[in-house]
Amino acid sequence: MPRLFGTDGIRGTANVDLRPPLAYALGRATAAELLGGSQPLIVGQDTRRSGDMLVAALVAGGTSVGADVHRLGICPTPALAFVAGHGPFGAGVMVSASHNPADDNGLKVLDARGRKLDDRLEDELEALIWRSEELASPGNSGVGREVDAHGLLDRYLEDRLGLARRAPSSLRVALDCANGSGGAVAPPIIQVASASVDVHFDAPDGTNINLGCGATAPQALAAIVAGGPADVGFCLDGDADRCVAIDESGGIVDGDQLIGLIALDRIERGALAEATVVVSVLSNGGLVAAIEAAGGRVVRTPVGDKHISDAMTVSGAGLGGEKSGHIIVMEHTASGDGIVTALEVLSILARTGKPLSQLCSRVPLFPQEQRTIPVRHKEGWEADRLLSAAVRDARSELAGRGRVVVRPSGTEAALRIMIEGEDATRIVALADALSELASQRLDRERLD
């Protein structure tokens, strides 16, 4: 049987390989495995048109085994995590493909703390999905109920408004909501922490989430900030668990530099737990160098916010995240939250009185190229002798002056390649060559 869970839940093209029967089975399995026989399930969604369809199937599945299922409605993933962890719920499911295109969707399962499942529990849940029809189904009097829980979103809103009130500024902010679920709460929160907020890409129609906007396409807001009066811009992704910033001149500030400036600020104030930052293997070497030069410690993990969170728990780190802009500030939240990241940056800008570009200059990044190559055979790339040899050659060429990371995507049918080094021209050439070879070798019906 194919593996269902990737690095961030179950994902696929909505109504093609991610269809209602799978969501129904997940609803039954989650209710049976995680609710302890009496706790309710909480479900949220982003703005994709397919969300209603998949939520309906989840509700049907959960209620069919006797669980009450509460619908939070359109909300950021971190909002669902907050509500799940501060209520009577035994688990939560977020229907979202996060930063992916609108045609995709996903199912992210959270435990009673609002955190993603550990590998063991995820494996057990997946096994139960395949035999969900074997689960007992009660009669009419034992069927669960669907509960409208939209009002619970106010709990998250009030908590984040509290954070915003602690760090008011006179800054003018441009906010890109990615036509996603962040638009439900982000504008009023950021308004409290700034002099003004101009909101962009907050007109979701079910098909335009992440389309030419948001954290995966920050160039749109960068052009707006460069030509307007804003002091800083923030781009969320479709479910608002990521944040990419725009400096006062329209420069794009990715997750690595945001992690760096937050880390340096906290190190200087003695406010970084264990003086430790957790990042993935894709994070830039320049970020690591800047943190270590300031007296901090950096721990690297495999890609995926679950790995970041686990390493933070083990190390006691107070800060962790990824280049994508998925950042965890443990003082405020145990999950990535783009709104919290924006508030952290606004607080630093207000406290220092320095523009974002000046702060980011303290975290100079090494030249780095990343490629995503759609392929049929992402898991088997190392078995291809030509591609494996080319990767080995690239690593030998860089030999201590750079890095090559090749990995299958955990969220789509693609291979991801990252190359980092001192010579920008050369790493572009290496990235292009490896990407072309990977496409030729791995995107065929039959391998040689």
Q: What would you say this structure looks like, in words?
A:
There is one protein chain. The protein has 14 helices and 19 strands. The chain has 448 residues and is an alpha/beta fold. The chain folds into three domains: 5-148, Alpha-D-Glucose-1,6-Bisphosphate, subunit A, domain 3 (Alpha-D-Glucose-1,6-Bisphosphate, Chain A, domain 3); 155-360, Alpha-D-Glucose-1,6-Bisphosphate, Chain A, domain 3, CATH 3.40.120.10; 368-442, 2-Layer Sandwich (TATA-Binding Protein), CATH 3.30.310.50. The strands form four sheets. The chain has a seven-stranded mixed beta sheet, with helices on both faces. α13 runs antiparallel to α14 (424-442). The longest helix is centred in the last third of the chain and has 19 residues, at 424-442.
Task: Based on the model shown, name its key terms.
single chain, 448 residues, alpha/beta, Alpha-D-Glucose-1,6-Bisphosphate, Chain A, domain 3, TATA-Binding Protein, seven-stranded mixed sheet, five-stranded mixed sheet, 37% helix, 21% strand, globular
**Domains (count):** 3
Largest sheet data: 7 strands, mixed
What is the CATH C level class of the largest domain, in words?
Alpha Beta
Protein structure class: alpha/beta
Unreliably modeled segments: none
> In one word, what is the shape?
globular
Quickly count the helices: 14
| Helix share, percent | 25-40%
Briefly note the CATH topology name of the largest domain: Alpha-D-Glucose-1,6-Bisphosphate, Chain A, domain 3
What is the tally of beta strands? 19
**How far apart are the termini?**
25 Å
Mean pLDDT: 94
Indicate the proportion of strand residues: 15-25%
Q: CATH superfamily name of the largest domain?
A: Alpha-D-Glucose-1,6-Bisphosphate, subunit A, domain 3
Task: Tell me the radius of gyration.
Answer: 22 Å
What is the architecture of the largest domain at the second tier of CATH? 3-Layer(aba) Sandwich
Strand order of the largest sheet: 1-2-6-5-3-4-7
